[in-house]
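_Backbone structure tokens_
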Amino acid sequence: PMFQDVANKLVKAMRIKLKNGPREIDILHWMSRAALEMIGQSGFGYSFDSLEEDAKPHPFSLALKAFGWELIFASACTN
């Protein structure tokens, strides 16, 4: 049920974005947000993201993204 609730929020956000017809959507952005929300709710009992278009990113989400890029760049420099 928890994953279904997050999926329903994601579907609602996509419908809002597409209400005026087809357009390009950054799916990686939205799937990353949904994945963090699913992990947060199921693993920590905490909501990191409302999955609304103009929602301010949670500080943990920003830190995770920054850390992820650091790992990618560090790996690229050592190979």
Observations:
- Residues 1 and 7 are 10 Å apart (CA to CA).
- The helical segments are 2-17, 27-44, 59-78.
